[in-house]
């Protein structure tokens, strides 16, 4: 403070801009001094009276903001008092230009009235206020020195002006020193120091000052509250901001329109749309700023549809908007990709006559660039270039140029890009970092590498933006190794990377599948402070997910809000790893946060629910996708059919198919596969006739379904006609699965000689394990030991570790009396796959294992069922000996296998009449199959068992598989 209490030692130099300002009025002022000397003969009291009258008119002009008229009147005054000077300087301070205040003050001290006028505290305060407005710290220090030199009475008005001047000029230490020597700082002083800290980026210190202000017993006004709310907004400090809101309500400022608008902005920037909506709903009056804040709050939080709805209400109720409203809504339209809405807004701008507004032109450019389909082959009007006609006199700035360069990049429009390059040179924008980076990006994406590198090399000391553009361009064009090399060079040049640099380099690591480099880059990101950046974290999640480290990717999901996470790749990675429970937890997080979800992720979620024990999760996912409006997407509908089919709910699958507005070949194939899987061959063939009626061309998957339907119905001749027509009529080359379908058709019909003959005609390169497994399955159905042995040996020749074939071959050898070979095979395959069955009840999955003793209620229920079966004269079907190969051996009628335990548990807990769904991990044995058919005759409910090979729907003593599984 000592330096502030003495006159400044540094000589004051009037800035050149201020020196030249108002030179003509000052010349008129000096000429008026000559006129003044000629009026010395006028009586003094008359001069004073005239001066008071002039001052009255000066005050009227200054209050009205007519500063040109006030200055003209001031120049014509024969004599000016201190009041005259004060009125005009105060008017300039209020209405501008503030620099005129400094010029007048200098002239008052040096060139007028013979230097007899001595400024008072009010004049000094006005001048200090002007210093703060023009950010002239040196001039302010001179004025402060004059205050001390002239021993002027320092009142609170002058003290507050000093604090405000230093704070406005960024000299916060000086402002704090002046503030500290104020005996009793009032509200203005507190507001000045608070405003200085907040406006200079020290929001945290500003909040502390506000707290001290409250503790000091100072009652804040609307300005102080707006400052502290602005600090909370910048810091996203929701807790402190809500406390300030409570205090505003407590002292009765909650009806202040200015504060209500500030509160809405605070809640919006903190992501609390509910809080913003509550403030908006309780506003007694709203101005256009209120509407703009409300719309922009939704746009800021990516709620574009809601922003569009509010804008429509604004136009219906208020019938007007301004450029701020239009800029916000154009961002919403861009985010939604609603080009038609954007064109309507463009039309409104033209009708309103505000198309020359540079900011609106820039927003329209971004809208058209963001909404246009840049990959379409259809010709498009070059709307972005036409928008430049609105700008008069070539009022192009760097934002418009960068937007146009982005458009050229997306369109690969090299010619227009070169034109813009010439315009950049003409406008002398070649030193702007972002313009140059956009230029590099344009040449890179147009494939002109030499031009991009030439632009980069001509940049003196390139900073982050040009480096990022060059690295991104290499990644974009597939030069991933070069992108990593450039990133290393960028680090050696000590240039800091930003989020765009990191995302481009992560993409390069992913493309090269270089996990080591990816981890090194992750460490660099942590050191650089970008570990919570949304774009960078999503890129890292993508990297780890694609490289099968989904657990590491999950850890990263805690660093950013769930609503900002791109879940697509993580869901896909978890699906590939079989981590279905993690996917269902992710779905819950998406629901809670209303996070990002696209149709492809929705398909993966449905795929994770494709099991009868996960049916409840699947139906909940179905309800949520319907609520989000995703269910109408064709790909999702296909996945929904497949999910319900895999869950054993064929009726729901058919309903999903029937509700599709448009059906493609994949939809038809999905419902065909569902019908075949659940043993409805006649319905499948009926669907095929419907496909022909709808002129839907069959593909390879469709033919597989058709042939399987023929196999289930024993239509041998029809199957062969379809098989031969594949190539002749449809031009489709049969695959291994189509040959296996014909083998199944013949095998189910018991035509094994024809099967072997047909196999001899199959091309050798198509004789894979699938064909021999199909023959093995057919021989199992008919109990043909000779063919079963032959097929099992063929399977084991191709895949020696096949468990099912090993067990079946062992069973065949034992049955045919080849004890030694069977013993060798049994010794070789000591580890028998433990069977288990699962059932879902009330959102909980219960597993029953073969080596596990069931609970008492399960044992009791099994005993009850066995007693009922014996009472009704049940006799087990022993014609399925080969079906028992994969299951452990038990004595008794077969009610001790895991699926029977699960069924008994379900019968105990589920309501009467409700179907029981069980999933088994090995093929269902013949004894259990026979028992379930008999049980379905008296249990009065459907029993559904899914094993790895088929669905078994047991109703009225029959199974949907027709005893062929």
Tell me what you see in this structure.
By secondary structure, the protein is mostly helical. The chain has 52 helices and six strands. The chain is elongated and about 140 Å long. It starts with a helix and ends in a 6-residue tail after the last strand. The relative contact order is 0.02. Residues 1-42 have low confidence and may be disordered.
Percent of residues in beta strands: under 5%
User: What's the mean pLDDT score?
Assistant: 82
For the sheet with most strands, the description reads: 6 strands, mixed
Total DSSP helices:
52
Cα gyration radius (Å): 42 Å
* Helix-residue proportion: 55-70%
Helix-strand makeup class: mainly alpha
Shape: elongated
Across the major sheet, the strand order is 2-1-3-4-5-6
Amino-to-carboxy terminus distance: 96 Å
Number of E-state strands: 6
Poorly predicted runs: 1-42
């Amino acid at each position: 403070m000592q330096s502030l209490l003495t006159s400044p030692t540094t000589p004051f130099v009037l800035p050149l801009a201020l020196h030249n300002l108002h030179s003509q009025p000052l010349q008129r002022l000096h000429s008026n001094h000559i006129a003044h000397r000629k009026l010395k003969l006028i009586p003094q009291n008359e001069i004073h009276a005239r001066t008071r009258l002039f001052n009255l008119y000066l005050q009227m002009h200054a209050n009205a903001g007519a500063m040109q008229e006030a200055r003209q009147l001031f120049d014509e005054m024969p004599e000016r008092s201190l009041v005259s000077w004060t009125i005009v300087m105060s008017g300039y301070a209020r209405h501008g230009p503030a620099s005129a205040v400094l010029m007048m003050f200098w002239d008052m001290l040096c060139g007028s009235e013979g230097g007899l006028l001595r400024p008072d505290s009010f004049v000094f305060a006005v001048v200090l206020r002007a210093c703060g407005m023009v950010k002239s710290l040196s001039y302010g220090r001179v004025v402060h020195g004059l205050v001390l030199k002239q021993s002027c009475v320092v009142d609170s008005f002058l003290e507050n002006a000093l604090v405000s001047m230093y704070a406005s000029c960024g000299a916060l230490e000086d402002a704090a020193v002046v503030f500290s020597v104020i005996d009793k700082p009032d509200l203005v002083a507190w507001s000045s120091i608070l405003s200085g800290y907040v406006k200079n980026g020290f929001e945290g210190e500003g909040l502390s000052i506000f707290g001290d202000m409250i503790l000091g017993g100072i009652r804040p006004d609307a300005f102080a509250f707006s400052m502290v709310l602005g600090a909370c907004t910048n810091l996203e400090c929701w807790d402190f901001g809500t406390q300030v809101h409570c205090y505003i309500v407590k002292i009765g400022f909650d009806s202040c329109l200015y504060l209500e608008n500030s509160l809405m902005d605070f809640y919006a920037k903190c992501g609390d749309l509910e809080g913003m909506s509550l403030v908006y709903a309780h506003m007694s009056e709203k101005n256009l700023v209120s509407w703009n804040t409300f719309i922009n709050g939704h746009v800021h939080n990516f709620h574009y549809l809601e922003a569009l709805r509010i804008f429509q209400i604004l136009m219906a109720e208020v019938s007007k908007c301004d450029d701020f409203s239009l800029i916000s809504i154009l961002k919403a339209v861009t985010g939604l990709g609603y080009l038609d809405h954007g064109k309507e807004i463009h039309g409104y701008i033209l009708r309103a006559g505000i198309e020359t507004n540079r900011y609106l032109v820039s927003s329209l450019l971004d809208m058209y660039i963001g909404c246009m389909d840049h990959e379409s082959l259809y010709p498009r009007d070059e709307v972005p270039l036409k928008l430049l006609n609105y700008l008069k006199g070539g009022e192009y700035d760097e934002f418009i140029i960068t937007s146009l360069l982005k458009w050229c990049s997306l369109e690969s429009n090299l010619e227009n890009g070169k034109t813009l390059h010439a315009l950049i040179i003409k406008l002398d924008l070649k030193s702007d970092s972002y313009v140059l980076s956009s230029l590099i990006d344009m040449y890179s994406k147009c494939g002109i590498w030499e031009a991009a590198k030439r632009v980069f090399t001509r940049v003196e000391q390139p900073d982050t933006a040009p480096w990022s553009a060059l690295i991104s361009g290499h990644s974009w064009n597939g030069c991933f190794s070069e992108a990593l090399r450039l990133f290393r060079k960028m680090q050696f040049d000590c240039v800091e990377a930003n989020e765009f640099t990191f995302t481009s380099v992560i993409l390069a690591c992913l493309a090269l599948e270089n996990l080591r480099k990816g981890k090194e880059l992750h460490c660099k990101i942590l050191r650089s402070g970008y570990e919570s950046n949304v774009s960078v974290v999503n890129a890292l999640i993508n990297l780890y997910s694609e490289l099968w480290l989904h657990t590491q990717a999950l850890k990263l999901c805690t660093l950013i809000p769930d609503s900002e996470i791109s879940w697509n790749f993580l869901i896909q990675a978890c699906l590939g790893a079989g981590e279905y429970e993690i996917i269902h937890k992710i779905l819950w997080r998406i629901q809670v946060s209303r996070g990002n979800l696209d149709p492809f992720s929705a398909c993966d979620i449905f795929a994770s629910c494709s099991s009868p024990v996960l049916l409840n999760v699947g139906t909940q996912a179905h309800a949520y996708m319907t609520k989000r409006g995703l269910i109408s997407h064709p790909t999702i509908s296909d996945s929904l059919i497949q999910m319900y089919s895999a869950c054993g709910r064929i009726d729901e699958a058919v309903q999903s198919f029937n509700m599709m507005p448009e059906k493609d070949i994949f939809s038809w194939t999905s419902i065909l596969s569902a019908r075949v899987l659940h043993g409805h061959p006649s319905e499948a063939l009926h669907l095929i006739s419907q496909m022909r009626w709808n002129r839907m061309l069959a593909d390879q998957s469709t033919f597989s379904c058709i042939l399987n339907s023929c196999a289930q119905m024993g239509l041998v001749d029809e199957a062969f006609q379809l098989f031969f027509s594949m190539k002749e009529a449809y031009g489709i080359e049969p695959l291994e699965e189509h040959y296996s379908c014909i083998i199944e058709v013949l095998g189910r019909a018991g035509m094994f000689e024809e099967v072997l003959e047909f196999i001899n005609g199959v091309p050798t390169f198509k004789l894979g394990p699938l064909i021999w497994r199909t023959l093995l399955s057919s021989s199992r159905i008919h109990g043909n030991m000779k063919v079963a042995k032959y097929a099992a040996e063929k399977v084991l020749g191709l895949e020696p570790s096949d468990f099912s074939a090993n067990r079946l071959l062992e069973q065949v050898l034992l049955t045919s009396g080849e004890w030694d070979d069977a013993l060798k095979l049994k010794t070789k395959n000591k580890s028998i796959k433990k069977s288990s069955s699962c059932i879902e009840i009330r959102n909980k999955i219960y597993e029953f294992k073969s080596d596990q003793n069931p609970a008492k209620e399960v044992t009791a229920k099994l005993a009850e069922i066995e007693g009922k079966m014996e009472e009704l004269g049940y006799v087990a079907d022993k014609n399925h000996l080969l079906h028992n190969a994969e299951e452990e051996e038990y004595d008794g009628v077969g009610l001790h296998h895991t699926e029977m335990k699960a069924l008994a548990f379900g019968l105990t807990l589920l309501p009467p009449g409700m179907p029981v769904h069980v999933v088994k991990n090995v093929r269902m044995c013949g004894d259990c199959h026979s028992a379930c058919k008999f049980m379905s005759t008296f249990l009065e409910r459907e029993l559904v068992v899914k094993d790895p090979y088929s669905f078994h729907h047991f109703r009225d003593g029959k199974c949907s598989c027709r005893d062929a599984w």
